[in-house]
Structures are given as structure tokens and as C-alpha cells.
Amino acid sequence: MKLMGVINLDHELDQLSELTYFRAGAAVPFAGRYRLIDFALSNMMNAGVQDIALFVRRKYRSLLDHLGEGGPWDLNRKRGGLFILPPDWHDPTDISVGDLQHMHNNRDFFARSTGEYVVHSGSQHLSKVDFCDLAAKHKASGADVTVVYKHVDLLEPEHDACFRVEVGEDGFVNGIHNEKGHHNLYIELFIMEKGLFMQQMEYCIAHGDSYFFRDAILRNPAGLKIAGYEYTGYHAVINSIESYHKNSLELLDQDKYKQLFSPDQPVQTKIKYEAPTKYLEGADVRNSLVANGCQIAGEVDTSILFRGVKVEKGAKVVNSIIMQKCVIEAGAIVENVILDKDVLVTENRTLVGDSRKPFVIAKRSTL
């Protein structure tokens, strides 16, 4: 069964404050060396998906730089591969709006792909869904569309914005809604046969609709048979600064780290060649995730350091996320803080946020 992929960023809002001032949410760095987009792309790569469209509308310079031709995900192909499709509306007869614009104006991508089924994903839900298993169960069920959901025992604030999925004993969906007390979260992932996908797209446009999931699946005017696929692995929702900080630091738990970065389903990212981290005399690093290229002479505790970070002697970093090439000068204290790339914290400066609401500093700032 051949699959084609769509990663749709059109509906995703810039909810990570300073981290999304200059980039789309999907391009936000995560876990020391990755970007949020890497997880959806890697899931598709691991399932052998060879044609992937990325629908973007704004702030996509950072994404273009990170993804390039798609080499790390084996998508730099002569036929097929990765198609980054920013908005380009030049058809005066086009009446489509919302994310249906992307689908309508890029119909050639769907027509030319050899994929039989469309796997449609966002980037805010991090997971390790096995798309091959998803496709096999979708075909066996006889459903028109299968939506993926995760049952969570503990509802967190970041779950408030998620749709909920009600599934009957027969495995088919009885309802999709936003009732806050329901524990089956839709993780913004579904699969549908390509011909039916195109048919529903044209139907929605003809009826003045805007968004495929909401208007074709949630409202379901065509009476589609919708099946539910329960995903039971690692899952995190990144839709706020608080959820970003919390889910990042939870990766310091080795069990959670191994769930997300399991060797049988590797996560790929843009390759950079840098020297190993250098720990100088007096360095004290505990319970932290440190990428390569760093230079540490101070104290780092329960934190994540991206590539090329410098922590000078006498500096202290606690419960924080420090992105690429930041410098923490001697005597500075950083606690419950997120520093975007290329931030300089000068000598003896103290930055302290709250663990429930971290302090965020925009990229290239000097404090």
C-alpha cells in the first residue's frame, strides 16, 4: 500500500510567543538538536512515504533553511520527495479559502503522486505513530477515513484546545467534539484514500468551506464512515510556552526520552558537524541534555543546552532551555528561562522565571 504525506501548517497559530516571532511553530527547536517538524517528517520517512507536501503560509524562511531538499529524511529524490508549497494564488477563478487553497492550488501534487492513500498531519502533536500499521488497519476496517487519537489519563492545560474523539465498541467514531472532560485526544492525524480526499476537497470548495478537517470530517456532510485508531506511545502537545518548557524538560526522564527516540523509529534532523562538548575545570553538570559543540565551565542543572552554548565559570543554569550559540557569562544566573538562539547574558546578570511560566528571551538579545 503506497502512502503520500501532507504536513499542513496552515491552521497552526504562532502560540509560542518570542519563539515564533521570526519562525513558524513547526520550525521551533526542540530536544537539543531537532525542530518540531522533524517528528512528523521522520514518522513518514520510517513508513516509506516518498511524496510529502508541506503546506505553509507565513514565516517559513527558517523551515526552508532547515529542510533544504529533504536529504536527512531521504527525500532529495529525482522523482517525488519533499515539496515545500508556500501560498501562490494566481488563478482568478479560484474561490477556495483556508487550507483548501493549498489543496486546490496544488492538485498536481496529488495527481502526479503514485500514493494511493493520503496521510495528513500537523506538527504540534509529537508522536511515533506507525503509519504502516495505521494504513493496514484503515484498509481492513472498510472506513472512508481513520482519525488517530490518544487516550490520556491526566488532562493538562495544553489539551484544552484539542478535539476529542468518541469511539464505539465497533471501532467507529460516534462523535468529534471539544468537551474538556473527555480523555481521547485527536492528535491531528488522519488517513484517507486519495481519490476520496480529492472528491471531498472539491465538495468543500464548492460549498464555500474553508478547512478540510473541520468541514469534511468534523461536520461530515457526506456521511463518511470514520474509524478511530488508538495510539498508545509517546505523545506531547506543543501549543504554548508552558507546554513547550514542560514537555522539553520531561525528556530528562530516560524512559520518556527512549520512547520518543526509539532506535526502531529514528528521528532525523538537519546534519551539522561540530566538535564534542568541552567540560572545563570546575564544570558541574547534572540531570541535563547537552548537545555537541558546547563549552561548559559553570553549573548546569536539569536543563537542555543546544549546540554551541557557552556557560562561563561561576555561571549557573537551572531548569532552563538554552538554544544554539547562547552565551552565559561569568557569575550570571539563569533559572526557569528559555533563551532563543544567539542570546548573550552578561556577567552577574540574574534571570529567574517561574517553573509554571518560564521567562522567554527572543533571539539575538543582549541582557
TrEMBL record:
The protein's matches in InterPro entries, at most eight in alphabetical order, are given as: ADP-Glc_PPase (IPR011831), GlgDAde_trans (IPR011832), GlmU/GlgC-like_hexapep (IPR056818), NTP_transferase_dom (IPR005835), Nucleotide-diphossugar_trans (IPR029044), Trimer_LpxA-like_sf (IPR011004)
User: Any idea of its EC number?
Assistant: 2.7.7.27
Q: Which organism is it from?
A: Saccharibacillus brassicae
Q: Mind listing the UniProt keywords for this protein, alphabetically?
A: Glycogen biosynthesis, Nucleotidyltransferase, Transferase
The residue ranges of the Nucleotidyl transferase domain are 15-153
Q: Where is the Glucose-1-phosphate adenylyltransferase/Bifunctional protein GlmU-like C-terminal hexapeptide domain?
A: 284-350
This chain belongs to the protein called Glucose-1-phosphate adenylyltransferase subunit GlgD
Family, according to the entry, reads as follows: Belongs to the bacterial/plant glucose-1-phosphate adenylyltransferase family.
Q: Which EC class is this protein assigned?
A: transferase
